[in-house]
């Protein structure tokens, strides 16, 4: 059975409300829908690929995490279709399968296959949101740097949009201590893809731990994961990194080194 | 005589109604218009090229097939301009030429030249919808693989959006039995173009029969046909394939093989 | 003095009406605005470049020609800003400089520098509309075919969107007698640019006469002129040609001949 | 603390008004928001990069300069978030930090790091607006012309959208005396980037003085600054220059010289 068709004029939300649906445009369920439409227009999440998860850091329960369902057209997502899990035990406390059948049309939703990867960003980095795209610039960089386990770029202004991260000695947590500088080298680890998305979890976690300075992980022949302190920071980091990946492809094709000699 | 101009604010539909026009945005006639605008923005159906046909699989008569007229600007299509044919004998049961002259402006509509090709997908594969685009990525792949009769790509995450198809032994029909895997090789047959679109029918049918695992056929120097179990599946398959074709052009131009060595 | 700023929410039109302004979205003055916004989004008329002129072929006086002013941001054009000339003597019968000063803000409008070129299409080819763009695909083709006076392409499906033109022996006029075929070679003459746009008139007219089969003329290092029997035909021809020029650049860069060996 | 989230449906403005906020769409604070959304869609100001400043040349006090805050998502900017400075002493006379906390959410705004650069254009050139983008075409040109301190292009029609500037002998000021010609060579100086944006001020001012004919300065590995007599002129110059930079990258990659031999 196929998913309910999510045309842009879908009327469902206005008729159905529960405690995880809100008319506030800043509510995580609404922001996921808004940002997925934006990402779709950027060719980052076409063909049901990619996704985004948001933690309700400013809501009454900041341990709630909103997650889009698996295999759904990202640009047609509706707020009522979200799964909600509660940290730290990641228990699902809402599923769209409980919504009235006139909404679900008896389709059985499953949480995004990215869920354990999103959770890794929440638990290992205290992220407020995590974005996953199939950006062609990201995939091309993993192919053009095909024998490398790191992507590197330096001396480009846009690098300054990315955070300088460091371990807080008193808490042991990785925190933003400022912004990267123009002359810094941005290093993003590249992990190998696996047949099943959830099997990426171990190597993603390993990369997150091995690279305390990174706010993103590239997945070879697949795409990228980017996270941030909140949804807007995650969005900005993802935009800045994608800009740099797109530029890096052009530089490589023109024979220009992406890391400038000192 | 030229076709009536279909400016985006055309007022016709609200004044004229018949049994094949509906205010439901999920109605095939409305979806054809909505998706053609989307495809136009993707540069897939400019210059009146390409098109889409939808079978009313969820309507009262699932044998009705909606088809856009020939030679019309796809992004300006109006729901009243559709032809409707009934399977299995493909008899036309509605023509826009029966609409009032204040709508047709005496223009004589003809069904899309793709009609026999769309019908082949309905009859040979039990498709719910069929999309035809002049995507430049598709045309470039048929040129870059100019001496090949198959396009192939493997080990790219987006391949997982495509269906794994197999013959159902009890019915003899080809059915979706799951999704392709990351390490699978996607094979899309390439047929040679013909001077008249309808003359493609034989070779398209031959390719459909010879490649039971495919949900698409490339046409050299022309474009691509993609079909699916319903309109949303067809849309998703088309998006995923176009993503892969676009990536394949970039890989080829960078000297990267699209099929990974084992 | 600078032109009045044409923000997208400009309120002028609703308050000022004359016989060459209409609430009908199909009126030439409105279509020029609508299509210029579309062309702007295609990067065809940014930086005040390019333009479009429409003959009111379905209006009470089919000799009236609507022309946008010179040096105005094309995407912010308002219907009241049009010049209107009457064929065959090309006399200006309306200028936006007659509009109330609260609209013109004392800016002195001049007709587009393309005016004599548009007029050449009307008088030599009985065109219903003429489009001029600074399309980068057009400019690149004139550079990649830098030592040629013709651009040629064959055996691409999109060629079929273009008209087959022939001289009507009884009237001596060039008329559309059908559509080009897949295997036909589209030939578009390339003329050299001149310092002043109006000085292109002679060579454009010469090319129009020398190439009775063409519906477009490329201008080296500048852009393209495309015309058609009415505004929608001109739009479709321009889209189809631009698609072919874009594809031709890609083919050339991949070492693929644009004219297929027989 | 992170900036307030600026979703596209933010309701703040309609509820809060002061003397530097207006319902007139032509007001500088509104135009900055409108144009930043446009620039975002062009990939010029993603990831909080770039910006625009407008001088209220037609307002009651033409010495007021509107400046967007630092580190904010450009496409989500709201009119109440602007800083206002008064020329010639550049004193800040408005800060968004004075807005009610339900708007600012206690976020501490800082003026754009580009402020001293924008001010240089106002004071040295009497500009009416100044645009700064991270355009990839601009960055690529500074890399492809990596050993040059000037970017040059000639004999492209779009050059005619740019101003011919000359010193007015009686006032000593640089003024527009006409438009560049097709055969003119557009020369844009390239300055080296610095770790801190404000440290660019000296070299930007030096370039502005050394190149009296330029209306733009490229910054290596960073982007471009473009100014004009008013906001619309600055917008048009920026569009025309970006078109030329984009074309120049394509020409360079095809081995075509950007300056034509005489």
From TrEMBL, chains A, B, C, D:
Annotated metabolic or biological route of this protein: Amino-acid biosynthesis; L-methionine biosynthesis via salvage pathway; L-methionine from S-methyl-5-thio-alpha-D-ribose 1-phosphate: step 2/6
Domain Class II aldolase/adducin N-terminal: 30-249
Gene3D superfamilies named among the record's database cross-references: Class II aldolase/adducin N-terminal domain
SMART domains: Aldolase_II
Broad class of the protein's primary localization: cytoplasm
Binding site residues for Zn(2+): 132, 134, 222
Subcellular location: Cytoplasm
Annotated function: Catalyzes the dehydration of methylthioribulose-1-phosphate (MTRu-1-P) into 2,3-diketo-5-methylthiopentyl-1-phosphate (DK-MTP-1-P).
Name of this chain's protein: Methylthioribulose-1-phosphate dehydratase
The organism of origin for this protein: [Candida] anglica
Underlying gene: MDE1
